[in-house]
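Consider the following input, taken from an annotated entry for Aspartyl/asparaginy/proline hydroxylase domain-containing protein (Magallana gigas).
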Amino acid sequence: MMYIYALGIIVFLCIFVIAYFIKRKNKISKITEFSSCRNPNCVRCVQYRQVTVRACERYHQLCQLQTDISDATERIAKSLTKNSLHSTTSQLLEENVPNPLVFDLKELNPTEFYEVCSDVRLAADITVLEENKHTILSDFLNINKPQHQERWLRNDTPEGQWRVFHLINQGKVMEENIKLCEKTFELVSKLQNVMKRNVFGNVVFSVINPGTTISTHYGPTNIRIRCHLGLITMDECILTVSGMHRKWQTGKCLLFNDAFPHGVTHLGSDEKGPRCVLIVDLWHPDITMQERNSIDYIFSPVNE
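Applying the prediction step yields:
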């Protein structure tokens, strides 16, 4: 009798362990499937190897052009030699550690969220965005009209719909798009810390419909701070960064480091409507002006 009882426990444990790993594998597969996009020009998902090879070549060109740049490029050079590109693993996802997929600059403060009041270097830019929220919202409502929908791009998501409208896409100004929102483009172009001259810089309107899940994923680099200005928000839409949850507020900026694992879930009903924000990539405040200039040259937009 004891033998049968013990055997039953062993069988139960085996079934439990197998079921756990099957569930875990399915979860990881789902994350992997939708943590990258199909855009053939995407630096993070498709072009990362080409961008890295090109960056090394342009670094050597920079060294030849300027002989006094050692201080400005020392940690950039060390970071370019890192040989762990696109090393996303299930272990890293579970550990909630930063894992930029293209360029990981050494010795940067790895903070998930940034409070505007705690960093005066970013405060001025945030003030400009928040004080002009009505102007930016007006531009958004214009580009979101039915006659402009062909200019929007749709990103892959496991559920729901996520649309984006670029003003700057990977360092390239979208000339036709900015004609529809000139005031917003003029505002962001004057920000002190806006990243707009390299492949990691974007300015983009982002719309997430109710019922949408954006799977956990990593950004391409740790040199930027993602700033989201809330235009239309609701409590049911949640941003998760390294297991920490935040909600957008209308007219307020939410800043985070997208080198950490992050994702979005919109749990609201159709009546709640979509979450709409303006995304502006800002320079990490610990990067010097000399380093900014070097990175802009090394990671200049492709085809320049």
